[in-house]
Amino acid sequence: MGVMAMLMLPLLLLGISGLLFIYQEVSRLWSKSAVQNKVVVITDAISGLGKECARVFHTGGARLVLCGKNWERLENLYDALISVADPSKQTFTPKLVLLDLSDISCVPDVAKEVLDCYGCVDILINNASVKMKGPAHKISLELDKKIMDANYFGPITLTKALLPNMISRRTGQIVLVNNIQGKFGIPFRTTYAASKHAALGFFDCLRAEVEEYDVVISTVSPTFIRSYHVYPEQGNWEASIWKFFFRKLTYGVHPVEVAEEVMRTVRRKKQEVFMANPIPKAAVYVRTFFPEFFFAVVACGVKEKLNVPEEG
Protein backbone atom coordinates (compact mmCIF):
# COMPACT_ATOMS: atom_id res chain seq x y z
CA MET A 1 0.00 0.00 0.00
CA GLY A 2 2.88 2.35 0.89
CA VAL A 3 4.65 1.63 -2.43
CA MET A 4 1.48 2.35 -4.39
CA ALA A 5 1.05 5.63 -2.57
CA MET A 6 4.63 6.63 -3.38
CA LEU A 7 4.07 5.79 -7.05
CA MET A 8 0.79 7.66 -7.18
CA LEU A 9 2.19 10.89 -5.71
CA PRO A 10 4.44 11.79 -8.69
CA LEU A 11 1.59 10.95 -11.09
CA LEU A 12 -0.76 13.16 -9.09
CA LEU A 13 1.71 16.05 -9.13
CA LEU A 14 2.25 15.55 -12.86
CA GLY A 15 -1.49 15.59 -13.44
CA ILE A 16 -1.94 18.80 -11.42
CA SER A 17 0.94 20.44 -13.30
CA GLY A 18 -0.64 19.45 -16.60
CA LEU A 19 -4.02 20.87 -15.61
CA LEU A 20 -2.39 24.14 -14.51
CA PHE A 21 -0.55 24.39 -17.82
CA ILE A 22 -3.74 23.78 -19.78
CA TYR A 23 -5.59 26.37 -17.67
CA GLN A 24 -2.87 28.98 -18.28
CA GLU A 25 -2.87 28.36 -22.02
CA VAL A 26 -6.66 28.51 -22.25
CA SER A 27 -6.66 31.68 -20.13
CA ARG A 28 -4.01 33.26 -22.39
CA LEU A 29 -5.96 32.43 -25.56
CA TRP A 30 -9.18 33.62 -23.94
CA SER A 31 -7.54 36.91 -23.01
CA LYS A 32 -6.36 37.37 -26.57
CA SER A 33 -9.77 36.64 -28.08
CA ALA A 34 -11.36 39.12 -25.64
CA VAL A 35 -9.45 42.07 -27.13
CA GLN A 36 -8.60 40.84 -30.64
CA ASN A 37 -9.46 43.60 -33.15
CA LYS A 38 -10.97 45.73 -30.36
CA VAL A 39 -10.31 49.47 -30.30
CA VAL A 40 -8.69 50.13 -26.91
CA VAL A 41 -7.93 53.65 -25.67
CA ILE A 42 -5.33 53.92 -22.88
CA THR A 43 -4.78 57.27 -21.16
CA ASP A 44 -1.37 58.17 -19.72
CA ALA A 45 0.13 55.33 -21.74
CA ILE A 46 3.65 56.61 -21.01
CA SER A 47 3.38 55.88 -17.27
CA GLY A 48 4.65 52.61 -15.81
CA LEU A 49 1.18 51.06 -15.74
CA GLY A 50 0.26 52.59 -19.10
CA LYS A 51 3.24 50.95 -20.76
CA GLU A 52 2.41 47.56 -19.27
CA CYS A 53 -1.25 47.85 -20.33
CA ALA A 54 -0.09 48.79 -23.83
CA ARG A 55 2.16 45.72 -23.93
CA VAL A 56 -0.54 43.34 -22.71
CA PHE A 57 -3.28 44.62 -25.01
CA HIS A 58 -0.96 44.97 -28.03
CA THR A 59 0.10 41.35 -27.60
CA GLY A 60 -3.59 40.44 -27.41
CA GLY A 61 -4.20 41.92 -30.85
CA ALA A 62 -6.02 45.12 -29.87
CA ARG A 63 -6.13 48.25 -32.02
CA LEU A 64 -4.45 50.57 -29.55
CA VAL A 65 -4.90 54.29 -29.13
CA LEU A 66 -2.10 55.43 -26.83
CA CYS A 67 -2.63 58.80 -25.16
CA GLY A 68 0.01 60.84 -23.36
CA LYS A 69 1.23 64.39 -22.91
CA ASN A 70 4.80 63.82 -24.14
CA TRP A 71 5.19 62.99 -27.84
CA GLU A 72 8.77 61.76 -27.58
CA ARG A 73 7.88 59.25 -24.89
CA LEU A 74 4.86 58.11 -26.89
CA GLU A 75 7.14 57.45 -29.87
CA ASN A 76 9.56 55.51 -27.65
CA LEU A 77 6.66 53.35 -26.45
CA TYR A 78 5.52 52.88 -30.05
CA ASP A 79 9.02 51.71 -31.08
CA ALA A 80 9.22 49.35 -28.10
CA LEU A 81 5.88 47.71 -28.95
CA ILE A 82 6.74 47.31 -32.63
CA SER A 83 10.19 45.89 -31.87
CA VAL A 84 8.86 43.07 -29.67
CA ALA A 85 5.80 42.22 -31.77
CA ASP A 86 5.61 38.55 -32.79
CA PRO A 87 5.43 38.35 -36.63
CA SER A 88 3.52 35.07 -36.38
CA LYS A 89 0.67 36.76 -34.49
CA GLN A 90 -1.69 39.44 -35.74
CA THR A 91 -0.98 42.80 -34.13
CA PHE A 92 -1.92 46.33 -35.17
CA THR A 93 0.12 49.51 -35.37
CA PRO A 94 -0.80 51.71 -32.39
CA LYS A 95 -2.20 55.18 -32.93
CA LEU A 96 -0.52 57.92 -30.89
CA VAL A 97 -2.50 60.87 -29.52
CA LEU A 98 -1.26 63.85 -27.52
CA LEU A 99 -3.56 64.25 -24.53
CA ASP A 100 -3.18 66.10 -21.25
CA LEU A 101 -6.27 65.30 -19.20
CA SER A 102 -5.67 68.29 -16.96
CA ASP A 103 -6.48 70.44 -20.00
CA ILE A 104 -10.20 69.73 -20.25
CA SER A 105 -10.69 71.88 -23.35
CA CYS A 106 -8.69 69.51 -25.59
CA VAL A 107 -10.49 66.30 -24.56
CA PRO A 108 -13.53 66.55 -26.93
CA ASP A 109 -11.20 67.08 -29.92
CA VAL A 110 -9.19 63.99 -28.97
CA ALA A 111 -12.37 61.91 -28.67
CA LYS A 112 -13.49 63.13 -32.10
CA GLU A 113 -10.09 62.27 -33.59
CA VAL A 114 -10.28 58.72 -32.25
CA LEU A 115 -13.86 58.19 -33.44
CA ASP A 116 -13.07 59.65 -36.87
CA CYS A 117 -10.15 57.24 -37.19
CA TYR A 118 -11.78 53.98 -36.04
CA GLY A 119 -15.49 54.76 -35.98
CA CYS A 120 -15.87 53.37 -32.46
CA VAL A 121 -14.18 52.66 -29.13
CA ASP A 122 -14.67 49.23 -27.58
CA ILE A 123 -12.64 49.66 -24.38
CA LEU A 124 -11.56 52.83 -22.57
CA ILE A 125 -8.92 52.49 -19.85
CA ASN A 126 -8.84 55.61 -17.67
CA ASN A 127 -5.36 55.34 -16.23
CA ALA A 128 -4.14 58.93 -15.89
CA SER A 129 -3.55 60.21 -12.36
CA VAL A 130 -1.66 63.00 -10.59
CA LYS A 131 -0.50 62.53 -7.00
CA MET A 132 -0.06 65.21 -4.35
CA LYS A 133 1.17 65.10 -0.75
CA GLY A 134 1.09 67.83 1.84
CA PRO A 135 -0.93 69.42 4.67
CA ALA A 136 -4.28 70.66 3.42
CA HIS A 137 -3.78 74.25 4.61
CA LYS A 138 -0.51 74.54 2.67
CA ILE A 139 -1.91 73.41 -0.69
CA SER A 140 -3.31 76.22 -2.79
CA LEU A 141 -6.84 76.11 -4.17
CA GLU A 142 -5.35 76.46 -7.65
CA LEU A 143 -3.36 73.26 -7.15
CA ASP A 144 -6.48 71.55 -5.74
CA LYS A 145 -8.28 72.40 -8.98
CA LYS A 146 -5.44 71.05 -11.12
CA ILE A 147 -5.52 67.74 -9.26
CA MET A 148 -9.30 67.51 -9.64
CA ASP A 149 -9.01 68.30 -13.36
CA ALA A 150 -6.44 65.54 -13.94
CA ASN A 151 -7.97 62.87 -11.69
CA TYR A 152 -11.69 63.57 -11.98
CA PHE A 153 -12.86 66.06 -14.60
CA GLY A 154 -10.42 64.81 -17.26
CA PRO A 155 -11.44 61.13 -17.09
CA ILE A 156 -15.18 61.86 -16.90
CA THR A 157 -14.95 64.36 -19.79
CA LEU A 158 -13.31 61.73 -22.01
CA THR A 159 -15.81 59.12 -20.80
CA LYS A 160 -18.78 61.37 -21.61
CA ALA A 161 -17.34 62.08 -25.07
CA LEU A 162 -16.98 58.38 -25.95
CA LEU A 163 -19.98 56.96 -24.08
CA PRO A 164 -22.70 57.90 -26.64
CA ASN A 165 -20.89 55.77 -29.23
CA MET A 166 -20.91 52.77 -26.88
CA ILE A 167 -24.57 53.30 -25.99
CA SER A 168 -25.64 53.53 -29.64
CA ARG A 169 -23.75 50.31 -30.44
CA ARG A 170 -24.97 48.68 -27.19
CA THR A 171 -21.53 47.40 -26.35
CA GLY A 172 -18.36 48.63 -24.69
CA GLN A 173 -16.38 48.67 -21.47
CA ILE A 174 -14.89 51.50 -19.43
CA VAL A 175 -12.17 50.70 -16.90
CA LEU A 176 -11.19 53.17 -14.19
CA VAL A 177 -7.82 52.52 -12.59
CA ASN A 178 -8.40 54.16 -9.22
CA ASN A 179 -6.76 53.84 -5.80
CA ILE A 180 -7.47 52.60 -2.29
CA GLN A 181 -7.94 56.26 -1.37
CA GLY A 182 -11.19 56.19 -3.27
CA LYS A 183 -12.35 54.03 -0.35
CA PHE A 184 -10.90 56.01 2.57
CA GLY A 185 -8.62 58.98 3.04
CA ILE A 186 -5.08 59.11 4.41
CA PRO A 187 -3.53 62.18 6.08
CA PHE A 188 -1.64 64.61 3.83
CA ARG A 189 -3.46 63.30 0.74
CA THR A 190 -6.60 65.44 1.02
CA THR A 191 -6.96 66.59 -2.59
CA TYR A 192 -5.75 63.32 -4.07
CA ALA A 193 -8.16 61.30 -1.91
CA ALA A 194 -11.01 63.69 -2.74
CA SER A 195 -10.39 63.25 -6.48
CA LYS A 196 -10.34 59.46 -6.12
CA HIS A 197 -13.55 59.45 -4.06
CA ALA A 198 -15.20 61.62 -6.70
CA ALA A 199 -14.09 59.42 -9.60
CA LEU A 200 -15.21 56.23 -7.87
CA GLY A 201 -18.57 57.76 -7.02
CA PHE A 202 -19.12 58.88 -10.61
CA PHE A 203 -18.35 55.49 -12.14
CA ASP A 204 -20.35 53.60 -9.50
CA CYS A 205 -23.39 55.67 -10.46
CA LEU A 206 -22.66 55.35 -14.17
CA ARG A 207 -22.50 51.56 -13.90
CA ALA A 208 -26.20 51.35 -13.05
CA GLU A 209 -27.18 53.92 -15.68
CA VAL A 210 -25.60 52.12 -18.64
CA GLU A 211 -26.24 48.50 -17.67
CA GLU A 212 -29.34 48.34 -19.89
CA TYR A 213 -27.16 49.25 -22.89
CA ASP A 214 -24.72 46.38 -22.18
CA VAL A 215 -21.92 48.83 -21.40
CA VAL A 216 -19.71 47.51 -18.61
CA ILE A 217 -18.16 49.82 -16.00
CA SER A 218 -15.17 48.40 -14.12
CA THR A 219 -13.02 49.87 -11.37
CA VAL A 220 -9.59 48.51 -10.42
CA SER A 221 -8.27 49.92 -7.12
CA PRO A 222 -4.75 48.97 -5.99
CA THR A 223 -3.19 50.36 -2.80
CA PHE A 224 -0.84 52.26 -5.04
CA ILE A 225 1.30 51.34 -8.03
CA ARG A 226 4.93 51.21 -7.02
CA SER A 227 7.89 51.86 -9.28
CA TYR A 228 9.67 48.92 -10.89
CA HIS A 229 12.51 48.62 -8.37
CA VAL A 230 11.08 49.96 -5.08
CA TYR A 231 10.24 47.53 -2.29
CA PRO A 232 9.11 49.28 0.94
CA GLU A 233 10.30 48.06 4.30
CA GLN A 234 8.24 45.46 6.11
CA GLY A 235 6.24 46.60 9.12
CA ASN A 236 6.69 45.09 12.58
CA TRP A 237 4.65 45.01 15.78
CA GLU A 238 7.44 46.73 17.75
CA ALA A 239 6.59 49.99 15.98
CA SER A 240 3.35 51.85 16.63
CA ILE A 241 0.04 50.54 15.26
CA TRP A 242 -0.06 53.46 12.84
CA LYS A 243 3.43 52.85 11.42
CA PHE A 244 2.74 49.14 11.00
CA PHE A 245 -0.58 49.94 9.33
CA PHE A 246 0.93 52.55 7.04
CA ARG A 247 3.84 50.39 5.91
CA LYS A 248 1.44 47.61 5.05
CA LEU A 249 -0.83 50.11 3.36
CA THR A 250 1.94 51.57 1.21
CA TYR A 251 3.28 48.23 0.02
CA GLY A 252 2.04 48.79 -3.50
CA VAL A 253 1.58 46.46 -6.42
CA HIS A 254 3.85 46.20 -9.44
CA PRO A 255 2.66 47.73 -12.75
CA VAL A 256 2.84 44.31 -14.43
CA GLU A 257 0.44 42.84 -11.85
CA VAL A 258 -2.03 45.69 -12.31
CA ALA A 259 -1.87 45.48 -16.12
CA GLU A 260 -2.58 41.74 -16.01
CA GLU A 261 -5.48 42.39 -13.63
CA VAL A 262 -6.85 45.02 -16.00
CA MET A 263 -6.78 42.43 -18.79
CA ARG A 264 -8.58 39.88 -16.57
CA THR A 265 -11.11 42.55 -15.64
CA VAL A 266 -11.82 43.22 -19.31
CA ARG A 267 -11.99 39.52 -20.17
CA ARG A 268 -14.31 38.60 -17.32
CA LYS A 269 -16.20 41.92 -17.33
CA LYS A 270 -15.64 42.36 -13.61
CA GLN A 271 -17.34 45.33 -12.01
CA GLU A 272 -14.97 46.02 -9.14
CA VAL A 273 -11.49 44.81 -8.23
CA PHE A 274 -9.59 45.73 -5.07
CA MET A 275 -5.88 44.91 -5.23
CA ALA A 276 -4.30 44.97 -1.78
CA ASN A 277 -2.75 42.81 0.89
CA PRO A 278 -4.88 41.86 3.94
CA ILE A 279 -4.06 44.95 6.02
CA PRO A 280 -5.52 47.56 3.63
CA LYS A 281 -8.47 45.27 2.89
CA ALA A 282 -9.16 45.01 6.61
CA ALA A 283 -8.83 48.80 6.89
CA VAL A 284 -11.70 49.26 4.43
CA TYR A 285 -13.99 47.17 6.65
CA VAL A 286 -12.74 48.83 9.85
CA ARG A 287 -13.46 52.25 8.32
CA THR A 288 -17.00 51.07 7.49
CA PHE A 289 -17.97 49.23 10.67
CA PHE A 290 -15.65 50.77 13.32
CA PRO A 291 -15.09 54.34 12.12
CA GLU A 292 -14.11 55.75 15.53
CA PHE A 293 -11.30 53.20 15.91
CA PHE A 294 -10.12 53.87 12.36
CA PHE A 295 -10.07 57.65 12.92
CA ALA A 296 -8.15 57.18 16.19
CA VAL A 297 -5.44 55.14 14.47
CA VAL A 298 -5.12 57.68 11.68
CA ALA A 299 -5.04 60.61 14.12
CA CYS A 300 -2.35 58.82 16.10
CA GLY A 301 -0.17 58.85 13.00
CA VAL A 302 -0.63 62.60 12.57
CA LYS A 303 0.20 63.26 16.23
CA GLU A 304 3.44 61.33 15.81
CA LYS A 305 4.28 63.69 12.95
CA LEU A 306 4.99 60.73 10.73
CA ASN A 307 7.10 61.57 7.69
CA VAL A 308 4.82 60.10 5.01
CA PRO A 309 6.86 58.45 2.18
CA GLU A 310 6.25 59.39 -1.44
CA GLU A 311 3.96 57.18 -3.49
CA GLY A 312 5.03 55.56 -6.73
TrEMBL record:
Organism field: Pan paniscus
Gene assigned in the entry: DHRS7C
Keyword Cell cycle: no
Signal peptide: 1-18
GO biological process assignments: D-glucose import; intracellular calcium ion homeostasis; regulation of release of sequestered calcium ion into cytosol by sarcoplasmic reticulum
Keywords assigned by UniProt, alphabetized: NAD, NADP, Oxidoreductase, Signal
Family matches, as InterPro entries: NAD(P)-bd_dom_sf, Sc_DH/Rdtase_CS, SDR_fam, SDR_family_member_7C
Protein name: Dehydrogenase/reductase SDR family member 7C
Any one GO CC term of the record: sarcoplasmic reticulum membrane
Lineage per the UniProt record: Eukaryota, Metazoa, Chordata, Craniata, Vertebrata
Protein family according to the UniProt entry: Belongs to the short-chain dehydrogenases/reductases (SDR) family.
Keyword Signal carried by entry: yes
Gene Ontology MF terms in the entry: all-trans-retinol dehydrogenase (NAD+) activity
